[in-house]
Amino acid sequence: MDTKSNPKFGFNILLLCLFLKSHISLAADTISADESLSGDQTIVSADGVFELGFFKPGIFSYNYVGIWYSEQVVSERTIVWVANREIPVADRFSSVLRISDGNLILFSESKTPVWSTNLASTTTSGSVQAVLLDSGNLVLRADGSSTNTSEPLWQSFDHPAHTLLPGGKLGFNIVTNRTQILTSWKSSEDPAPGLFSLQLDPNGSNAYLIFWNRSRQYWSSGAWDAKSRIFSWVPEMRRNNMYNYSYVTNKNESYYTYSLNNPKTISRLVMHTSGQIRQFTWSENSREWNLFGSQPKRQCEVYDFCGASGSCNELSTVSCNCLTGFEPKSEIEWNLRAYSSGCSRITNLQYCGTAVSTSAKYRAPDVFQEIRIMSLPENNQSVVIGNISECGSICLNSCSCTAYAYDSSTGCSIFTGDLLNLQQLGTGERSGTTLYIRLGSALPLLKSVNANKRSLVIALVSETAGLLTITFGYFLWKKTWGKERARRRKNGETKTLEKERKHRKKYDEILSNVGDGDGKNDTELPLFSLRSILAATNNFSEANKVGEGGFGPVYKGILPGNQEVAIKRLSKKSGQGHQEFMNELKLIAKLQHTNLVRLFGYCIEEEELILIYEFMANRSLDKFLFDPSEKLELDWGKRFRIIEGIAQGILYIHKYSRLKIIHRDLKASNVLLDGAMNPKISDFGMAKIFEINQTEANTNRVVGTYGYMSPEYARYGHFSEKLDVFSFGVLLLEIVSGKKNAAFHRFEHSLTLAGWAWELWREGRGMEVIDASVRETCRHDEALKCIQVGFLCVQEDPADRPTMSSVILMLANEATSLPPSKEPAFSTHRNSVAVSSSPQTTPIISNNAVTISLPEGR
């Protein structure tokens, strides 16, 4: 092409070069002495794992220099280290990160140093360079030296921010007097050091991990157990096959660190703004971070998490709420879930003791708000008093008293100053006490004595006139409404009005139950309009219908942005649904795991109850498992991954989620498969919430599905985590054999699938249990181990069944020897008992065989 004929060609090339200069990352992984980093320039580690550059954590934030996972590794921008977290810069294009005087220094737009590696100049006689390693460690070393053979002059791993990466240290160096501490961000959009920190205890001979809120310790890991390689108060460290934990101590330093068994796993340990330490792993399938575990397990164990006059609630999606009569001091921080600023009074206290000014005589006295089942705050003073009314009087007559509590056994407790570390307890927790919060009257202050007398007369006249007006208006309305009602009755409309009133009352109750009792939604889920649902499903057209269960039909919907969703609509004819709707709405909104179905939102409008889920392209597991034409899609590799995924999902709800949950209806039709055949547990309508320390419970309302119920639950309504373990065992045997448990009492000699498999196993014919479609191609040792684990899960005695963490360990570890199993429950007619025969329980059997698939009888 003749460039002379196109005069714009050279200009365009110039613009392109300028653009590339400001946006392309620097060569390789290094900032050398003659190079600098500014604007949108970055450096990337050798294998492209981590990236370093300027970033803005929020829309209106300043700029920081930090390290994050590269987009090729983690699609979601995730910051793991921040250099200048206390002093941001306003303009990243005018600010420069470069080598100067043997240090890596960040200069602001005014050329002022705002952050430095702070090495003494005498320690770096030659030129140096900064190198970003694939471990996420930024090291400063002498130019030309090898990172593998020489100690770095400085490294970011010695100065962690809020994240500990594999290979990083948490401890202290006796020689350099340097301590590695993880400190939370101030909020999700402010990397400045927050209130919460984690460090290795520098005192004593034993190693402890200690959590702090400012200078207040609120959690400890317990001492390091060198034999088990865990901290004594964190036994779950023993029950994983992903991490290797280490505690190193010598004359120079002591530190805690961890590594990964699989180097390809992406994981990080974060001191979160919630005050919890959280371990995350990246899921390549779902393209999101999954929570592996957290400490303390309960959010409300974090000291003063909600600030002054804020109440922590473990069972609410919104962890913190201001007490009645209070409001957040900073709405912006609370919207970012940074609650430490606490709450302030909406109305000041009005009355204080007996020494009251004349004007105060016309003030209404302060009142007390009763809040039940609360943990008591700090700063209490015990007072020997006879009854609760005297306790309240003492508080009312003390200017500094802000709350009181009375118990017949412990007497009167008076609280002064800010109310800290408040917690709303569950109904089953015995330690809860009724707390009486002091509130100011809402009546206005009358300025002076003369003005008070005059204003008091005016006020009385005004209030009397207002009362007469209201009374007159009421009688006028009554008369008008009476005529209207008579007219409607004449026209046959009264029944319609009554029906509308009942519907409105029902949905008002649902909305109030969804929220915090004040009609405020605390699910953090979008509330969709019925119009948007109708548009997404083409008015619930049959062409969009993908299945139906006891709850009602399920439709495929397309939301704006071409997002596919599954829309579950409560059938008006459904005998079940209202309670299950509430259960799913409250539970699934609080659960986040790659092996649990995600709830996107809900709709409550007119007479509709609708839930919106992520769409599972491959429907439910039973459609592949029990259909001869479909089961060929399930090779052994896919089956084993499905087994592992289901186990991980159950372990999460039992142990690592915010709520301890028993599913109670685990079966093949309630396991959905995404486009990559990854399993996701669904249908939490029958699930039950347990207290954190609760291990078992009884019910008079047995719910679930025949064949998947454990004996103690089916007969006596007694359930625990072991109920889900039993159901998992049945499901595991179904996946291995390709046979449906429910079919055996009709077509086989044995009552159950487990009984049939057990007979073959005892005769040495275990291979015949494996589905014929995968029998020749599967890993025989792996499949036989799955059968053994299935037998262990369906034992008669709950104590003989393993926990889900043990199940995962048995499945994952080839070297693990399995304990011997006894004859499975319900394997013969001898040990079978019909559910309906028990006079102690009322069975509610699920007829929702398939969540997003065609209905199927049992």
Topology:
Elements: H1 8-23, E1 30-31, E2 36-37, E3 42-44, E4 50-55, E5 64-69, E6 79-82, E7 96-100, E8 103-107, E9 113-116, E10 128-132, E11 138-142, E12 154-155, E13 163-164, E14 170-173, E15 178-179, E16 182-187, E17 190-200, E18 209-213, E19 216-220, E20 224-225, E21 230-231, E22 243-249, E23 253-260, E24 267-271, E25 277-283, E26 288-295, E27 310-313, E28 320-322, E29 326-328, H2 331-335, E30 343-345, E31 367-375, E32 380-383, H3 388-396, E33 401-407, E34 411-416, E35 422-424, E36 433-439, H4 449-490, H5 494-514, H6 530-536, E37 545-548, E38 553-559, E39 563-569, H7 578-588, E40 599-605, E41 608-614, H8 621-625, H9 636-656, E42 660-662, E43 671-673, E44 679-681, E45 688-690, E46 696-698, E47 701-704, H10 711-716, E48 718-720, H11 721-737, H12 744-747, H13 753-762, H14 780-793, H15 804-812, E49 842-845
Parallel strand pairs: 27-35, 47-49
Antiparallel strand pairs: 1-10, 2-7, 3-4, 4-5, 5-6, 7-8, 8-9, 10-11, 11-12, 13-24, 14-15, 14-23, 16-17, 17-18, 18-19, 20-21, 22-23, 24-25, 25-26, 27-28, 29-30, 31-35, 31-36, 32-34, 33-34, 33-36, 37-38, 38-39, 39-41, 40-41, 42-45, 43-44, 46-48
Helix pairs in contact: 9-11, 9-15, 11-14
